[in-house]
Amino acid sequence: MNVSDQQAEIVKSLLKITREEELNCNELLEVIGEYAEKKLSGQPIDKTLEPVEHHLGLCRECEEEYEALCKALQDIENL
Ligand SMILES: [Zn+2]
Fold first, then answer.
1. Quick check: is 72 in a domain?
2. Residue 2 Cα, ligand 1 centroid: separation in angstroms?
3. Total structural domains in the chain?
4. Rounded to whole angstroms, how far apart are CA atoms 68 and 62?
5. Dihedral, CA of residue 51, residue 52, residue 53 and residue 56, to nearest 10
6. 68 C-alpha vs ligand 1 centroid, how far in Å?
7. Does residue 13 belong to any structural domain of this protein?
8. pLDDT at 28
9. What pTM value is reported for the model?
10. Is residue 12 part of a domain?
11. In this predicted structure, what is the pLDDT of residue 20?
12. What is the pLDDT of residue 79?
């Protein structure tokens, strides 16, 4: 087994641990606007946006991005 095979095995084992619907930061930023609007308007978070909630609980950077976005949206509403 060469090094890249070993790395492939490690990646495979990590993927088993990681939930299938896990988002990365870029994917999260694509849907964060939709998520924030739903949250602010009190709409239920549907299945497609559940991974967003999960990611925000794990990722400080995206959480900050989300909080900034919420503030901006609230400011627009208060105009
Ligand atoms: Zn993130």
1. yes
2. 32
3. 1
4. 10
5. 120
6. 14
7. no
8. 94
9. 0.69
10. no
11. 54
12. 79
